[in-house]
Amino acid sequence: MNENPLKVKTILVSQPKPEGTKTIYDELIAKYKVKVDFRPFIQIDPVPARELRKKSINILDHSAVILTSKNGVDHFFRICEEMRVTLPIEFKYFCTNEAIANYIQHYTMMRKRKVFFPKKKGENFFLKLLNTHKKEHFLFACSDIRKPTIPEYLTKQGIQFTEAIMYYTVSADLSDLEDVFYDIIVFFSPADIKSLYDNFPDFKQNNTRLAAFGQTTLQAIEEASLICQIPAPTPEAPSIVKAIENYIEAFGK
Question: In this structure, are 50 and 165 located in the same domain?
C-alpha cells in the first residue's frame, strides 16, 4: 500500500519558539510524531524617538494610550524612556485584551495605574470601551502595518487621537530555508505572507498545506492565489493547534 501523500511529518510555525521548555504544540508532536520548527517570518525594528519628535508628537499632550499588542507595550515604554517622559499617575492605558493589560506589569505597577480592557473578547467590545471615554486625547501606539479599524472608528466618532508609529514590521531573512520543505506552514498575519514572497518571489505551493490564524491572514493567503487548507479559528477549531490536529486526523495520518 502506498503511503498517504497528504501525511504530515513536518510543520513550520512562522513565529519565534515560545519561551520555556513547553509549547502548545507538544501534544501534537507526541500524538502524531510530527516535527515542528519555529521561525519568525517578520522582525520588529524600533522607530527612534527623534522620528516622533520630528512629527511633533509629545506623549504628555495625551491623556491615554491605546495598546493593541505586546510589541506596542514594549515600544511605548521604550519611547517614554528615550524621551525621558515620566507618565503621570492619572495617565490611562486602553488595551485590546486582558493579556496585554497584564503585560504592562513588566514596566509599571498596575495597581497604581488606570488600565482598561474589554471584559468580553472581540474588536467591537474594545471600540465600545473607547466610545465610553470620548473626552480622552488618545495616543495610538502602533506599527507601520496595522488594521485601519481603530483610527477609522475614532475619526468617525469625533474622538481626539494621534497615531504614533513606534515600530516597523519588516520581513525577516529566510534565505536559508530556500531548499527546505514542510508539509504544513502556519501563518499568523498578512505580514507573514508578504515575507514569504519577499524571500521567495517564485514560491509555488505544490503539496504544502497552509494554516492561517485569523480572517486577515486567510484573506492575505487568498489574495496571493494560494489555498488555505487549515483555517482557524472556526467553531470546530478555536485554536490553530486544534485546526492542525483536525486536519491530520482527517487527511494526514
Answer: yes
Here the cell at position 129 is 470601551
Q: Judge if 165 and 49 occupy the same domain.
A: yes
What pLDDT digit, counting tens, does each position of 225-234 carry?
999 999 999 9
Please report the pLDDT score of residue 157 as a whole number: 96
Q: Which residues contact 221 (CB under 8 A, 6 or more apart)?
A: 187, 193, 210, 212, 227, 228
Please give the Cα distance from 19 to 137 (Å, whole number). 36
The residue out of 144, 169, 194 marking a domain boundary is 169
For CA atoms 161, 162, 166, 172, give the dihedral sign: positive
Domain assignment of residue 215, yes or no = no
Structural domain count, the chain? 2
Q: Identify the domain containing residue 21 by its residue range.
A: 7-41+238-253
Residues 211 and 233 sit within 8 Å (Cβ to Cβ):
no
140-168 pLDDT, tens digit per residue, is: 999 998 889 999 999 999 999 999 999 99
